Each structure stands twice: as C-alpha cells, then as structure tokens.
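Onboarding guide, step 5: your first structure request.
Type a short instruction followed by the sequence, for example:

Predict the 3D structure of this protein.
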Amino acid sequence: MNISRRSILVFLVVVFAIPLLIGGISAAEVIPNDANIVADIAEEVGPSVVYIDTVRYATIRRSPFSPFFDDPFFRRFFDLPEEEMERQIPRRGVGSGFIFREDGYILTNHHVVAGAEEITVTLLDGREFTGRVIGADPMTDLAVVQVDAEGLPTVTLGDSDAARVGEWVVAIGNPYGLAHTVTVGVLSAKGRPITAGDTGREYENFLQTDAAINPGNSGGPLLNIHGEVIGINTAIIPFAQGLGFAIPINLAEELLDDLIELGRVIRAWLGVYIQDLTPEIALQFGREETKGALVAEIQVDSPAEHAGLQRGDIILRVEDEAIEDVRDLQQVIRSHRPGDVVTIEVWRDNELITLEAELQELEQELDIPTFEPMVDMGMEITQITPEKVEQFDLRVTQGLVITDVGAGSPADEAGLRPGDVVLEINRQEVLTVEDWLAVTAALTPGDTALLLIVRGDRSYYVPVQVEERE
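The system replies with structure tokens like these:
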C-alpha cells in the first residue's frame, strides 16, 4: 500500500497535537476560566485595602558651625538657646493595610507603623482618617490600627493552612506610594523562615509568592482566587525577582484578641537558648538521630532553671508533642499560656529523664538564636587576662579566648572568630592552655571537636573538624 507524504504529515500533526491539547485542558483547570476574575477580586476587595501614611520626627542640629556650637561654652558666648540649635525633620513612610472589622480595625505590619507619631489612613474612595496603633507585636511583625469610623468595607479572611502551593494569588497594596496596585502570581511555597531587614530577626512559617511585592506593599492582603485573605504581605528580598513573603492569616487570627484587648501578645516562656542538632553534635551526646533541640544555655531564674534543665540537655518531647528541631520547640511553647505546667522529656548523659516546668510570661522580646555551625581548627588561643578582657570586651574573665582565626581554616569555616571564649572541648572544661592541650592531644585528623563557646552574652556548641597540623 502506498502512503503519501501528505498522509504521513497529517498523521504526525494529529499525534503530536493530542498531548498539547490534553496539556492545554490541564492548564485550563488551573488557570482561572474567567478572564475578569482578578478584576472582580480587585473591585470587591479594593475598598477594604487602605493606604497608610506615617510621619516620624528626627531631631537634627541646624547650626552650620557645628560641632563648635555643640559646645556649651560657645552657645553661652553667642547667647544661643538650646532650642534654636535644633529642629525637627519629618520622615515619611508609606505602607498598606486592610480593614477586617467594619468599626475601623485595620491589620498591617508592625514595621509600617513602628515609631510613627502621625498615622493617616486613606480609603479607596478618598476618605482620610487619623489612625492610632492599639496593638503591636514585633515578633510576628503584626500591628492593629484603629480609626474612628463605622460601617467600613471589610475583607473576608480565608484559611492559609488550606492554601495549596501552586494556586493563584492576588496582592493589593501601595508599592512606592502607587495606591491600590494589583499584582498576580502563584503561591510558591509555604512554611518559609526568612531573615528580614538589618536586625537579623528570623520570621517563621511565611508564605512565599511570585506576585510582585515592593516597598509600600507591606501590610496589604495576599488573596486567594476566591478573594479571601490568606496572608499579610510583609517582605521582599532586595534585588531578587519573584520572591515575596506574607504572614499566614491563620497566625494573625490567633493573635488578634490579644492585640486588640491587651495591646500586645501574651506568650509563654521557658527560658532556654537552643540550637539544632547536626550529625556531628548528636554523636557527641550519644545520639544517632538529629531530632530534638539542644540546650546551649539556661537563663537565670527561668522556668527551665527551676525545672532542672541543664546545658547539654536534648529536648525530645513536650507534653505529647515530639520535638524534631528548634522550630518545633518554639512553636510548642508558644501554643501554651503562662502558668501552664508542661512535661519535658530530655536526653541527658545517655538516658531519658522527665522534668516538669511551669511556664512564665515572656515579659520582653527575647531573640532565641539558632546557630548553624559548619565544619572543620586553625586558630590561636590564649589565657584570658585583664588586657584580653578589655581588648575583646569579654563578659567571661577566666578561661581561654580565641585571638586569631586563619582565613579558610576549619575554625573559620565553623564560624569562630577572635573574641570567642572557649569553655569546653568535647564536653570537658578547659580553663587553661594546659587543659586544652590535654584534651586535643587525644584527637586525630578527621575527628570532630565539639566546642562550647561564649560570644557576647550567648553561648553555643560548635563542632569543628580537626585537620592535621602542617
């Protein structure tokens, strides 16, 4: 049978077109069928999204002869009163927010309104109100602003836990002061920890999106395709494209009652500084698994101290909750209230023990640092002297201090630096250079030395891989 070229061409077109058509059908199930759905969301939710304008005042010297006129003698000589030497300069900021109660309650970011002396809230219809912060929580970067108004349009709060990675999302806000800008993307990831700003603060459990978020978007809503708020747009990574982050709305809802009624969030406090386990650290404590949270330091007069927790304990369980890592422990403690008595299971000296701790209220914002040790030793140590205490501004006055770290050495790779005080090596106290030499003499190249160091007012366990001395 003869088959023409044309017949073959038609056959190939049909064969290859079928998968494309099927793929198109699958995509159509994901992409909104209604071409105007984003416009409908913007039209419905837009009136509930507000423009937040803030003013902070900075005091500066206005004398052109400063620093001479900063001297009291020169001020008296020229008979210049102090108030004439200074002036107040307003510093303006912009952000976004959204109304979640019709009687004037607005959710936004703490960093949008922090330190603001004047807050102006503008609605889509042009109405302006004076706002006041009634509750703020720096730890989650949330704030509630109230304006004197009734019958305002409100958003519908959704369920961020039910949101699926890959689903379409819409962001509305005021980037760079461009009011009510709408951008579209997908939910790129959930549960992202990020470090924001130059404070080094780590925020947990963020939603990640590629919907365009820019300065000024902070505090605005991240919406699902049903027009429900699933997140509060909060942060971007400068110079990166398609990386925006939002606080899950479920987290915000858990804190709203405290923010509105008390002006702050009531949190339980255990009083430990903790770090994740690595395989190297786990082996030093007789563990094959890296599950748990390692206690690096106990705060004085804390629930942890009263309960009998010790440095070097590995917390494996709180009540019925297994602790996989630092984040698990933080979340479990935060799920309790001050006054709760919790059972804590820890690994200590190769055995399991159970303790009870009565949690207290976290009176002030405390950073719980996590230290990500790397591997590998190339450093100089010396005995602490009064001169070394002054040179490195040490809080520890006896023991050993690192005075130099070689670039690219194992110690450098592990994050050690001059001024770090060494308290232990492989869980043995070292107070003198002789102590150090006695312990290190038993090590061989390839071993991992576990150092307990003090940096500033914090202590950390750091594993360092030992190399052969050249």
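Each response can be followed by summary notes, for example: The CA atoms of residues 374 and 413 lie 6 Å apart.
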